[in-house]
Amino acid sequence: MNARRRDLAALATLLPVVVATAFFVLPLLGLLLRAPWSRFLEQAGSPAVLDALWLSLLCSTSAAACSLLLGLPLAVWLAGGQGAVRAVVRVLVTLPMVLPPVVGGIALLVAYGRNGIVGGPLARWLDVALPFTTAGVVLAATYVSTPFFVLTVEAGLRSVDRRYADAAATLGAGPWHTFGRVTLPLVLPSLRAGLVVAWARALGEFGATITFAGNLAGHTRTLPLAVYVALESQPEAAVVTSLLLVVVSVGLLFLLRHRWWPSR
Amino acid sequence: MTLDVDFGLQRGELHLDVAFAVAAGETLALVGPNGAGKSTCLAALAGLLGIARGHITLAGERLDDPARRLFVPPASRGVGVVFQEHRLFPHLGALDNVAFGLRARGSDRRSARTAAREWLRRVGLERHAAVLPRELSGGQAQRVALARALAAAPRLLLLDEPLSAVDASARLLLRRELRAHLAAFAGPRVVVAHDALDAFALADRVAVLEAGRIVQAGTVAEICERPRSRYVADLVGTNLLRGTVHDGVLRVGDGGTLVVSTPHEGAVIATVHPRAIALFRERPSGSPRNVWSAPVVGIEVAGDRVRVQLAGQVALVAEVTPAAVAELGLARSVAVWVALKATEIGVDPA
To answer: Does the reported pTM lie above 0.95?
Structure first.
């Protein structure tokens, strides 16, 4: 009687877990079932898909690099103290995380577009135009992905024990030496995780990209945009391209495995 | 090269206000209960905490003097610190930890490593050059931390409870080693010690810190002979009684009386060495002026001695041999006769 009740209780706790897992697994399963396996290689190897894949990898890697350049000094400064100024800056910088990407794209157009407050002078005096170029894709991706990098690295920096920096100082190390030889090595896991998360966010970027950089094959049509285009005319190709993105994402999770796996 | 300090600072609840000097080649031990401000004092000397008042002067150079808006940052002080939790850089092997200070001061990698290897050899860890801190034992980490601090060629050496992270068996050896390394260091040294034995084994002079103030300072012998606070007495193991003397009779704070031999009158601090107290099963006859019966409230083994806590008219701690414990049938709440000669009671005006 008791054992039976226990079994029921175990089942009751397990059920929501099964439902939740199924919720996430079924769409993947659908992709696998609907994929035109006989023509998979042919579809995936088509110039349009390969161009988009190449462009996606190029742009998300560039965006991750830009995140590092823009985000690292920011994260170091944010982690350096408390206070209202830092809080405000943190909100402003992380806004793109919660902003609908389309809104982000429009905001980017207003700022960096041909007639934008920065883009206007850029176009007029330097003849540099960002919208509807590959650089524009990188810009849009950097805009949406840098907040992830900043928050990850700031959290990492905050968790680095301040006492190691103190110890370095008593040994005669100035702030730069301490940062380069003590703080940075200790924060390396967070830095790596921040880069991967930023890269992933950039890879999946759609809304801001299509709004700011448009959808020009070979120039601004990244994989997510290619999927969207294909969905209207050739749904099979859309599934194949999607699977390609799944493969890339799984690879990414593999890189990040130390974050999800319980550590030994 | 003398360390000369007189400063005050506020940190949370603690108001630290101290003045002392340590000569080159001399070791000062800071002892005191938890939260007395010992580590805070070291942090101020190292420049990791600013002071609010006074000055810190090393070899005639002002390192910190808020009145003159003078503050030398820790990296430029030449003050070596061995932290209580060692703070070895977790991503660097023992050798690179030791080489860190030399690299920070601009040595090239090769010569820094050569010098660091020599320091590792001196602390007996040349075989552990590549070992990461998390794989070192407490004693090994302590040695690496000491080598790291010394390799940076400091002018002043600070050690925060250097033996606290070491298990008892390794302690004796490490204490002896540490003593030798301290002796080889030419500048002033300040050691924070929680354990009286460590303080007295390592230091020439002791300053007792309580609630941010130095309540007593002196040579080890002076402090053992005349502890001036309950804490110091516990630390050195001597009984300390506050009371008043009138006509050769000491009336202790909590009511009991003892016959003493002193010319002083009025408020005094009396010290009774635990070994001067004799315990008997039956009431002893003979000369002792102070004889009374007291219940045993605690028995504690301390090395080859047993410390017996006595209640009764005057609460005292007596030290006897384990054989005596068996002979007298000592146990908690057993009553014994206590005898104490008047001449064994040290009396100092309070």
So the answer is: no
